[in-house]
Sequence to fold (370 residues):
Amino acid sequence: MSFDQAVWLAFLFVAGTQTFAWALFLIQLLRLRSDAKKRTQEAREPISLIIAARNEEANLLNHLPAWIDQLNEEDEVVVVNDRSADNTALVLHAFEQRHAQVKVVTIKPVDAHHTVYGKKFALTLGIKAARHDRLAFTDADCWPNDASWMDRMGQEMQDVSLVLGNGFVKHTSSFVSRIAHYDSLHTAILYQSFARMGIPYMGVGRSLAYHRELFHRQQGFRSHQHIQSGDDDLFVSSLKNAKVKSQLAALTWTEAPPSLDDYFRQKTRHSSTSFHYKWHHQMLLGVYYTSLALFWPLFIAALFLGDARVASGLLLIRLSLQFASLFLLGKMSQSKLGLLATCWSEVIVAVIYPVFTLAAKWKKRHRWKS
Fold:
């Protein structure tokens, strides 16, 4: 076999893998949309919304009122002030005085147990302090897309153990926000599609809900408490015999990291948890992301070393499936990414994902920031 033939066969294999994957994602998103149309509006049980906050004075002032507006009469917001050094305590005290449904739990530096890392310890204390058995979670730097986030999550909890919402990065004109926004949509497509197929491997702590009974059955974060990140994805990945549902319209927003360096650090931290997923989750994601990283360089090579018309046709099919999937999910997020922007965003993401993975493999532990 010549070098040209090897490159061409490699491209066909990678292109076929990517096309199959995106066809599968599109089918699952269409099924999720169909599921949503079948839902009926029902009364829900009260919910405890839990937010872990560390040095989040500004974000709490900006976003906590929107979460309070979500509450029904019996709901509550439990905010865990995790060793903040700014005015977070004063801000939370003011909210607690004005709103009876706000409960504040404070962690002082001496309270932090040395075997439990940051956010997981804060969330565990928040769960213990919560009045209700139905628990919802978001981050201090997030805000809800509309006034129905709690209702959507609560209604889905009627007959399931865990609900996966969506958490997107706000799209602005900056380069980092465009990449982070595309990345958040791309990640959501993957974990929501796999969950719809009965393979839940992750969720985002910005938009998640589950029953207290599930938390206790999983023994909380015990199986991965030695890992700094993973209060969301490792908790979902480690589920056993739990019914999981997706709620695509339960959407939260967050600002993009201020710089490319901040984005790199954030993604490296998140990527570090993927090494602790179940082996079959790692295998599936490994095949997908490896084919994604190889797709574009092999496509360019195939234009010169193989049949350019066939290569272009496969690219068109794959992009059509991908764009249709992003369009379905992006409609609710008012995504402004067009086809051209989708292509260059994906090329950048495909290049930097292996970098994140390699960096995460050798990355040292560092302290969490909400």
About this structure: The longest helix spans residues 3-38. The longest strand covers residues 244-254. Confidence is low (pLDDT under 50) at residues 364-370. The chain has two domains: 3-32+280-360, 36-257.
